[in-house]
Input
Amino acid sequence: MEEDNAMYEKILIDIKNLIRSDPNLKDFCIVPINENKNKSPVLYEEHNLGLELWCVKYVYAYLYKQLFKLRRLLSKNRLIQQKSEEIDKYLISALLIHPEVATFWNMRRELVEYGVINLDIELLLTKLVLSNKSKSNEAFAYRKWIVSKLMKGIYKHDVVSTLALLNQEFTVTEMAAQNSPNNYHAWNHRMWCLQSAFVKHDFADTPMYLNLVFEQLDFSIRWIQSHISEHAGFHYRQYLLKCVLNSCCSVSERTGKIRCLLETFAHIKACDDEGFVQQLLGRSSTCVNRSMVNFILLLLEDLFYFMDQLNELFPGHEAVWYHRRFLIFHILQIAHEYHNVVWFRNVNVSGLMLNSNDNIINVDSGLSDTKYPKLPKYELDAVESSYLYKILLKFEFEHIQGNSLSKCIDAQRELARRHEKWLHFILCFNKSNSFI
Amino acid sequence: MVKLYSMSVLYKTGPDSAVCLKAAYDVQSFNFFQRGSIQEFMAFVSKTITERTHVAARQSVKQEDYMCHVYVRGDSLAGVVISDEDYPPRVSHTLITKVLDEFTQTVPASSWSTISERDINFPQLNAYLAKYQNPREADAMTKIQTDLDETKIILHNTIEAVLERGEKLDDLVAKSEGLSIQSKAFYKTARKTNSCCNFS
Output
């Protein structure tokens, strides 16, 4: 027994020393080796840390017992200085093996509050935990706590340090999102970090803000292209696109491509982005503002370039179509706000057509003959008579047609059909209006 | 994820035997200490699947999040691609055709039955594996290759479906000589962790 305890202590000290001495550690994992080959179970190679499976059970039982013994001392705040090294040592291994125990994280918080451990080590530790268990909510919560402490320590004008901190968080969240698909906690953490950086520096009116947002938008393109069926990546992109609305800086260097396309398509000529969007939307009593112009042009670019590309390469992926819905919905929403028109759409769908499965099937058979239920005739409002609306109508119906051909795979045809239904019943798009 | 994990060229020496002529792997996304085992496993799966595919047939096998595509040509030369489930299958299959064509040009057919993996110089395989991680790169190529008839590819939903009647993956793993003791332990642990939701 004594001998065993000495061995466990040795393992714990090894792990702690490795973490202290190598700030470039990449990841931690429990390696499935079931036999005790009479050598140290702590593996360390090329900045990777591993622990052999056979010892985990015993080590964890040992340190669990030790930790709860020490916890009584910690709560009475006695001997804290003398014991802190020991507690730290146990906590590191305990959290690496089993990060779900909130009590352990809280004990670490106490140590941080007493000032006995360094915040950089905490960032490294949470990173290692997340490399092993990428969806650990407790680890992300703790990391948030540490990051907000670090953020508080940065001067208001010290943008460089904030950006360095942000980049570090981006790397960690990217790793976590890479390791396990649909990692809500990782993306949430990423957005929270961006948000707190924005709040801290009142970024919104500086070119810095848009730079950061555009950098992330480019990142999200790369991410989505390699994780096509994860809606999480699209959701991040949608968050970033909405961030564009907060800034009034010009982004004309990014909008050339989409303007070029639409200019030839709709025969619009304008010398700047504002004039261009105004012609697209038509005249209104309110004037166009910079942020709205940016937003609309970026959404249109996503719709006409990015979506097209993804659609061709990855047919049958639902997430792509959902992003398409997001884009169309928000373009139209902002157009309605601009014209001060109440948007006539079926918000309350459940009462209308789609309240039961039978009805959906009935609706389908109607769709295939393109005999829609008659909607009451009404005058086209300002939005519906705009160029933008007509372009959207035409493109969407062409898109649906293109993806309903017999050469397309079944899943893609099904998604196209659902998209058509959504356009018709939710947005009240009407095919008969689709001429220019 | 859209990812290619491995690409290999094999030679089917009999109705149920095959040898690996050349293979390339990308295991960077896996944990450092498990890369060796995972690579051994991919070699094992590639070989097993080739052995169970008929000459002049294409198959795709889905196993959990992975896809394994195989094509055995009329002259018994076979290509296997292991990718993530999101990687477009059409691209994988055209890629196999292309790689096999180039391999035939580089290494003469007469030597296939005798040559060993070490003596073959075919660095293009690694280059392709890196380049076609992005399927857009391959798209130009696939547009030219229209002769691929997707309806002829047999799709299986588990690897067990490819195995012959009575065969069990667990037994094959236990018997295999290509897998180290550590990899077998790794397989057992993975099997146990993944089956936590089963009541059997």
